[in-house]
């Protein structure tokens, strides 16, 4: 960290940012449970079975953000489907979590979340 008077680093660049999404979200019990479960995986098992994700952000980071933004039900299904797409013969590349979901992606039809990807969002 630079404390010299001639240091021109913006203060937001000097703050620590974790690897998980830290934006605003509603702190409901389901979201906190899902995010805690994913964080537990990251701290314990990820070092042994991880390091093979073909996407950016990684599948666990994607799941953490999806649950935080869209809740345990939709975010959990988005994370599950992303994990399935990450396997052999699956997709790869930059695939962020959408900020908002389309109205056709109703909570009672989680199978429609399978194709929530960069190709469908027009990126």
Notes on the protein architecture:
Could be involved in insertion of integral membrane proteins into the membrane. It is a peripheral membrane protein. The structure is a single chain. The chain contains four helices and two strands. With 123 residues, it is mainly α. The chain has a domain at 53-122. Helix 2 packs across helix 4 (59-85).
Concise summary:
The protein is mainly alpha-helical. The protein is 41% helix and 3% strand. Mean pLDDT is 80; it is low at 119-123.
Number of E-type strands: 2
Decide which structural class fits the backbone.
Answer: mainly alpha
| Gyration radius from CA atoms, angstroms | 17 Å
> Which outline best applies?
globular
Low-confidence stretches: 119-123
Helical percentage: 40-55%
Count of helix runs? 4
Q: How are helices and strands ordered from N to C?
A: HHHEHE
Strand order of the largest sheet: 1-2
> Average pLDDT across residues?
80
Strand content: under 5%
How far apart are the termini?
A: 36 Å
Largest sheet: 2 strands, parallel
Helices, strands, pairings?
Blueprint: H1 11-14, H2 29-43, H3 46-49, E1 55-56, H4 59-85, E2 93-94
Parallel strand pairs: 1-2
What are the defining features of this structure?
single chain, 123 residues, mainly alpha, two-stranded parallel sheet, globular, disordered C terminus, membrane, Membr_insert_effic_factor_YidD
């Amino acid at each position: 960290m630079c404390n010299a008077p001639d240091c021109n680093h913006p203060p937001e660049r000097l703050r620590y940012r974790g690897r998980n999404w830290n934006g605003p979200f509603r702190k409901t019990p389901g979201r906190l449970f899902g995010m805690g479960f994913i964080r537990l995986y990251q701290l314990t098992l990820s070092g042994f079975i991880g390091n093979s994700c073909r996407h950016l952000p990684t599948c666990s980071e994607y799941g953490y953000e999806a649950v935080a933004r869209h809740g345990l039900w939709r975010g959990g299904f988005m994370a599950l489907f992303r994990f399935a797409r990450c396997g052999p013969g699956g997709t790869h590349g930059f695939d962020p979590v959408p900020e908002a979901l389309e109205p056709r992606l109703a909570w009672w039809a989680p199978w429609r979340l399978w194709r929530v990807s960069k190709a469908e969002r027009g990126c």
